[in-house]
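Q: Joint fold for the lines below.
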Amino acid sequence: MSRILIQNGRIVDPANHLDAVGSLCIEDGKIKAILTEPAGFSADTVIDAVDKVVCPGFIDLSVRLREPGQGHKGSIATETRAAAKAGVTSLCLPPDTRPTIDTPAVVEFIKDKAEKAGYPQVYSIGALTQRLAGTELSAMFALKQSGCIAVSNASAPLVNLLILRRAMEYAGSHNLLLMYRANEPSLSGNGCAHEGEVASRYGLPGIPEAAESIALAQCLELAELTGCRVHISQVSCRQSVIKIQQAKKYGLNITADVAIHQLHLTENDMIPFDSAYHVIPPLRSEIDRKFLLDGLAGGILDAVCSDHQPHDLDAKLGAFPETESGVAALETLLPLMLDLTRQHGLSLSKAIAALTQRPAEILGLDAGALTVGFPADICIFDPSANWQVNAQNWLSVGRNTPYWGQTLSGRVMHTLQAGRLIYNFQDDSQ
Amino acid sequence: MPIQNLNIDTLFDSLETAIRCQIAERKLKNPLLVGIHSGGAWVAQHMHRRLGLVEALGLLDITFYRDDFSQIGMHPRVKPSQLPPQLEGRDIILIDDVFYTGRTIRAALNEIFDYGRPNQVLLAVLIERDGRQIPLRPDCFGARIALPDGQRVKITGPEPLGVCIQTAVCAA
Amino acid sequence: MTKHLQLTEQGRLKHFLTIEGLSKELLLEILDTAESFAGMSGHQVKKVPLLRGKTIVNLFFESSTRTRTTFELAATRLSADVLTMNIATSATSKGESLLDTIRNLEAMHVDMFVVRHALSGAAHFIAQHTAAHISVINAGDGQHAHPTQAMLDMFTIRQLKKQFSGLKVAIVGDILHSRVARSQILALNTLGVAEVRVIAPKTLLPVQVKNMGVIDLHDMAEGLADVDVVIMLRLQKERMNSAFLPSESEYFRCFGLTEAKLKYAKSDVIVMHPGPINRGVEIDSAVADGPRSVILQQVSNGVAVRMAIMSMAMSGHGVVA
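A: Joint structure:
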């Protein structure tokens, strides 16, 4: 009968249209009351959230934990701790683990490890095709039964459109959400940067915008044909935003997310050949970034994710094209989202919704909101706390972030998952 | 010689006398005059005229042979060294404006010997001052002076040639 | 950032990775210094002791005979000790990481790396991770830069045209894949030529190429009109196989430099080529061997220019703080 009272915080809950200072009561791991204290409620734990924001815990649609299979880059234990510190209370794990998430055994392994790590809300995303090879359908029903929340092609291509169609039909028949990363390999080739002014100047093989938007268009057409529910993962360019807008306008049931760094960085921010900026999809032009931002503000893009991809040191050491792509992005997610509210006019409510309410809707979870009766997944953060991105303040095994050494503003103080305190900033002082 | 009495023409007269003396004493055969850029080249040009030599004046730029390359790098405008193709067995009169530490002369000798093996090398300078750091010394000089700390002597030119103590009055 | 990587705090050259970030004054200093070395090969003494006691390692991850030999010759003429390593990188044999290769060589007390690599940014990476006293010279990295080649081309242009201002220069060929072209464009613009044109089919031009400070054209008559300098680039055979061009003969018909096409240029135009040349593909033998061609002069300037760059990069390191 654990009772927790969070008091004096500014409660921002977009799902329930709430933005007010007051108290939040938790009992037995569920939300008991908001803005009122039930009569006779005596809390075992009181958290004073004065000058802090209290919101639903973040739901991150793409977080790579690197387990199973890539232990040198991270583990379920280390990366879920980083997630907790980042205010993330539920996360989706893409299927490109090793082995891939294409059998129930792998799903069980992950669930088991996550529970042992004290972070059970790891949602596996099943592979769309066996071994992500793009040729044979995976056992999607079995995967769903064992707990997969969706299926995805990760960043692997399908061998041809017929296989994609069949996979979508099959997923649809089991009412599985397809999370699709759009990329046409014959156009992206071995590109490592956005095909634009910067790549041209520095002689880097480029990935044209069309590589994403063409694959996206094909997927949208097949979504209409097959009736499969589709979520587009990590959109990066203007053309993709336009196509998603058109599809939504014509009534197609699709959603989309964008990685946080795409909303901040462009090809022009890349320090020449600094592999910290090597990401796929690549950092594109200012025009693309503007479109992504406007798309988020206007609801064309539904959610923001971290696209967390921790790497070992060696992965980023080498000539730019031979380094591995990806940013370790969990712990910078909040301050970067808050920057969007500070500098780009995104309302705090929309920002939080993009991390909570919308991902929950996309995944069909009773979460992402401070609704009475929902699991108490809560994030309490200080919007104006400055902190430096360095070894003292970083939990992820991967230190591959372009923000390393920079001072950011906005810091999680407490994170609760189903009413358990999984992160307390006071435990940080080592 | 007192510093105040430095006069460029006097210096040249003294040097010319000294050189003619050495030519006779050492029985130099068809000596080749070689001036070290830049001050030494100016002095050598004047000497070349005074001595009435027919063969063209040789010129050396020691930039590539300096020993302080690692410390201060290299000046880009290196004038080409001009020496006759055959140095074997020649008698050379090496001319510089000021002899100070001796490093310039060491570099010049290294360069000359990279070209070939002369019979002998005579060193003639307009001014020899104190402060030697290498065991070399001129065979002929226009004047010998001692300078207090922080002062340098420079030859200015090419026209008109003058001698100048850095922190004192310049004498033409 | 590139500027700060290449220069010491005093603004002296430390690494030579790319023309980008270098001032016009510095480029002219390189040309003047090369001038001093150029006179040397006529002398009895072909060597100067400037870099005696220094060890220079040629790290060639991409094979090349001509660039490698000119660097070897340049180092030798500066009295340095030279070590050449040809490190084959095949898809199957991964071998040592770039960083490990560097560390192992550093343990042998070397002073300079001359690096050629198949990937853009390799020289930058090495310069950022190598020991503080070591200088890195980029002998060509991927499609990004070949700055020593660009400098010897500028040296050749200055020899023949005296001034850069007012010059119209055309670069013809596979700009997209050419690190030489990228460096040449930067050098020409920094040195203040009037106009840089690139002439190629669209498949061989980088996107937004105009932002590199050039005028892009697809026609030789228009492109060569009134130019003072034509630089022909080598066309690699694989471009035909990867759908960039239909055939060599079509390329030659459109973009190959013949005596007829040369007539569009000024009468005193000079024809350059970084080599090796593909006769009958990008350039006619009559032009390559003709009176306007300065290709061999480029080659002989290569040693002096590299001597200048190497000695400038090595100088001023032993500064006592």
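Q: Anything notable?
A: The CA atoms of residues 126 and 151 of chain A lie 4 Å apart. DSSP finds twelve helices and 18 strands in chain A.
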